[in-house]
Fold:
Amino acid sequence: MSLTCVIGIQWGDEGKGKIVDWLSKHHDLVVRFQGGSNAGHTVIWGSQKFILHLIPSGIFHKGVKCVIGNGVVIDPAQVLKEIKELTMRGIAVKNRLFISDRAHLVMPYHKVLDNLAEIRKGDAKIGTTGLGIGPAYVDKCSRLGLRMGDLYQPDYFKKCLKQNLDEKNWLITNLSPYKSFKLEKVYRDYQNYARKLASYVCDTRVLIQEALEKNQRILFEGAQGTLLNVDFGTYPFVTSSNSDISGVCAGTGIAPQKINRVIGIIKAYATRVGSGPFPTELSGEMEERLRRIGGEFGATTGRARRCGWLDLVSAKYAIEINGVTDLSIMKLDVLSQLKKIKVCVAYKYKNKTYKHFPGNASVLENCQPVYKEFLGWNEDVTTIRKYQQLPLKARRYLNFITTSLGVKIKMVSVGSERNQTIVL
Ligand code: GDP
Ligand code: IMO
Ligand code: MG
Structure:
């Protein structure tokens, strides 16, 4: 039995999509377990570039089945858009995509509430994607949410939708110039989505269980990253789901002891999009350089990503939380041609040295990173496919990461294309 999880170790956008696509050829099922269309996973092969928000990045491999698990919050219009785009570009989705009947729906009022909450927060805004993710998870926990399966019980769906609209319309019309949502219109739109998605919706837990019984190989694709996790991330500047390993069980119905491999995806530097503490954040020319060479612009919102040095304090923390067994270091190529590369090994705050990632936001906001410096390399690494052929200075940097984190590097990515991957 092979159950592998791919988890982001930083603040998302580590390159999970690339690695999930790469690993998918060795799997039968690829499963998303949390998040929603806030995710933007880029897969590039040849001259083809795809950005997936809800459909798992395993979809490009013919024999692979893709599952959107119960822990994901689903904007049905977005799934339909992705299905249409993939189909038009020659990727078969029918009979290969399965959507959990227990997954919660993102409703149009969630997006409005998301944006209103951000406006109300002013300078303290989270910088959300504005796609209604937070409010959809709020409704799930408030036991008000509507689920994919409810779409197929029209009377029940309408009754619950009315209950929701009574509350949400009151909030929206009292707090903003927005107009209220009309029950009949929202109901009709969602019944329309339901019709188009009917052949995809099922009890995905059963599907996963059957795959387990057949000894099939399952790959779980995380969205976001551990530092955006609602429990262990840089709260309150986080997303609203468990983007760490804990989300896998809750978001799919799999038992924890079945998981035997956890691949931590980490960039050779760090990025963050949206607000919140980022101890190793750079500014000026160096940040600009990383952003330009690394193409650090959000795959979902197009926003410029904040860039900084690799932070081993937060990486160690994320590795412990997830029980990471293998590391995949991404975007090593972006660091080529730098004279010096820094890596954070501790934080200093008020004369105290922190080697463990603190839960306190003000420590994270105001601490000084303690850096170790490495000499950079001038060689282009993008065509290298064997670890031993990497420049010695690059290997020194990577060896330091492995030793500090206590986890073996199993993959090094040296370009965005599928094949620009070194497997150790
Ligand atoms: P995800 O959300 O974790 O799947 O990551 P994103 O797709 O949002 O962002 C990662 C970006 O880096 C994408 O544009 C990828 O095509 C690109 N990428 C992935 N690996 C590499 C790499 O090794 N080198 C370079 N230069 N780009 C990479
Ligand atoms: P992938 O899967 C990077 C960030 C947002 C914001 C915070 C909360 O591509 O790595 P939300 O809309 O989730 O309520 O926003 O989380 N965020 C991401 N940042 N990559 C992502 O996904 C993200 N998904 C959400 O920018 O700071
Ligand atoms: Mg992304």
Observations:
- The CA atoms of residues 292 and 334 lie 9 Å apart.
- The pocket of guanosine-5'-diphosphate (ligand 1) is lined by residues 8, 12-18, 40-42, 44, 294-295, 299, 330-331, 333-334, 413-416 (CB under 6 Å).
- The chain is about 35% helix and 20% strand.
- The chain has three domains: 2-103+200-262, 104-196, 266-423.
